[in-house]
Amino acid sequence: LKGDNDWSKVSLKFKTDDRGTISINCLYGGWGFATGKAYWDDIELIQIDAGQGPDISEDTESIVAANLVNHASSIQLSSTLNEIITKPTELGNKIKKMIKAPKVVVKESLEDELTLSKTHQILKIKAIEGLKFDKIKLEAKSGKPIAIIVSNPDLLQHNFVIGSPGSLEKIGSAADAIITNPKAIEMNYVPQTNEILAASKLLDPGTVAVIKINPLKPGKYPYICTFPGHWRIMQGQLEVK
Predict the structure, then answer these.
(1) If you write DSSP's letter for every residue of 100-152 in order, what string do you get?
(2) For labelling, which of 52, 160, 166, 204 has a CA lying 20 to 30 Å from the CA of 103?
(3) Of the CATH numbers 3.30.420.240, 2.60.40.420, 3.20.20.140, 3.40.47.10, which one belongs to the domain with range 113-240?
């Protein structure tokens, strides 16, 4: 719609079930890609009692889920799902259940594994649903460089951060604190601490990163995802022998 006279009336019927309070959020459909000024006018919330209108089959969660699936980009959907998972609410959990997860196709790594294997020990790990890595333990030998291939077939964004032995809580605390940093996204949510030995960029759904690490001494090295709200669950250990 354009101009001051090109107005459109939109109505939406929904059920509130037995909720004591509800929050009405009027949002435009630009999803961050539209610019300019836009206006709402004459917004009304009208209660429809039994017998005053047709039966309302759509509830709040189905409307929100449909809008996310039909209009949000994969990154926007990922961001919303992450918020639902890390800050669970009754409504959020219902919305999540109604969203049919699209299949995530993982891109191939730009690194040739055969060539890489001549100079590095190759380890593979991937993010999976439920804020987890598919492996909670990796093993490598000391004295030889390591290449960790990290893939993200999950719907959420993740990263992979490996730290020095005994550094899990320190890096985790730094990850919690980075949320307030206005440059956190630019930093790929990787906190600035000497305890971190290597880290990937922020991995969007379907992407892959190769992390190369210099030879390590024998020990147990923690790895975590430092995306907000993830590290306490999404962690594992690299044991170097």
Answers:
(1) PPPPPPPPPPSS-HHHHHTTSEEEEEEEETTTEES-SEEEE-TTS-EEEEEE-
(2) 160
(3) 2.60.40.420
